[in-house]
Amino acid sequence: MISLKDVQAARERIADITYVTPILKSNQLSEICGNQILLKSEHLQKTGSFKIRGAANKVIQSVQEGAKYVTAASSGNHGQAVAYIADKYDVPATIVVPEDVSFCKENAIKGYNGQIEKCGTTSAERIPRAKEIAIKESGVYIPPYDDPFIMAGQGTIGLEILEQIEEVDAVIVPIGGGGLISGILSAIKESNPKIKIIGVEPDTANDTFISFQNKEIISIPGTVTIADGLRTNQPGDLTFPVLMKYLDDIVLVSEDEIRNAFSFVMERMKQLIEPSSATTIAAAMFNKLPFQGKKVATVISGGNVDLEKISKYIVDTQL
Ligand SMILES: *Cc1c(COP(=O)(O)O)cnc(C)c1O
């Protein structure tokens, strides 16, 4: 299991690559939520999401150990992050993407000089292919969440929250495979166990919620949600034990609540955030948090949205 020390080491390793992202706030949002809400704004991070933190930590460590080639299986934020950091370190990267990858995602990866390989439509097809290429090229396959270096890299957000927000009471984090939240848990709970950490999942992609209730990893069938960064079928083998050890609670939000939060942040705060990130605001806005009157950091995990999809996300906010 990773520890606070691993997160501190990650922070040193990636310090020259990543931004310390700002904390944004809206008094109106805080009033609606009944808690003081502070947005840790990773949508303003390099490559548009926090994924660069874990990817940089893992790729730099691999390069230091002699890696000369990396691969990943993701058309989304992880694929972009791996392509970006590999390019910085002059290491070729092949990113395996689905046949139906959107034009703008493919372009983002190419913009970072990543090689694109199209393969199938499911991650069950893409992951073996990315591993196969890594073996053939004597390179390293970079997983999206279930890896100690990835988890420690994502945890650097936790260290920044501790420094940027004095006396924070709680931190709200979206959950996909659990890399982000397991890193943040290790960083924060080993620094100050009194700070509450609450995970959020879409109610249509509640694999970690069910696993957490049952105290064992449970896999659910295909998930459908506009929060595409959270569309996993089960938590990771390495991430889940960290959740079992430290996590206070997991709450669920509906697709409609995610759309409301997305629209609120866009209209009132003038910020473009991903539906995956809007889940944390939705949890606060729709009274899912088990407390009131607290100082709460919500992790806004990314801001990469296909522009043609925005109209599908926007609703007249009910608040
Ligand atoms: C990957 C991702 C998540 C989920 O992170 P995990 O480490 O898989 O739990 C949340 N939001 C965004 C924007 C992401 O790209």
Describe, in plain words, how this protein is organized in 3D.
By secondary structure, the chain is an alpha/beta fold. The radius of gyration is 18 Å and the shape is globular. It folds into 2 domains: 4-49 and 148-313, Rossmann fold (3-Layer(aba) Sandwich); 51-142, Rossmann fold (3-Layer(aba) Sandwich). The strands form 2 sheets. A 6-stranded mixed sheet has the order 1-2-10-7-8-9, with helices on both faces. A 4-stranded parallel sheet has the order 5-4-3-6, sandwiched between helices. Helices cover 44% and strands 14% of the residues. β7 (170-174), α8 (179-189) and β8 form a beta-alpha-beta unit. Pyridoxal-5'-phosphate binds next to α8 and α12. Keywords: Lyase, Magnesium, Pyridoxal phosphate. Its EC number is 4.3.1.19.
Q: Structural class of the helices, strands and pairings?
A: alpha/beta
Low confidence ranges: none
Measured as a percent range, the helix fraction is 40-55%
Rounded to the nearest angstrom, the distance between the terminal CA atoms is: 42 Å
Q: What is the total domain count?
A: 2
CATH class of the largest domain: Alpha Beta
CATH arch. level architecture of the largest domain: 3-Layer(aba) Sandwich
Give the amount of beta strand, in percent: 5-15%
Ligands:
pyridoxal-5'-phosphate
CATH fold assignment of the largest domain:
Rossmann fold
Number of helices: 13
Rg calculated over all Cα atoms: 18 Å
Return the average pLDDT rounded to an integer: 96
**Overall morphology:** globular
- Tell me about the largest β-sheet: 6 strands, mixed
* Order of strands, widest sheet: 1-2-10-7-8-9
Pfam family, one: PALP
EC number: 4.3.1.19
Catalytic activity: L-threonine = 2-oxobutanoate + NH4(+)
Organism: Cytobacillus dafuensis
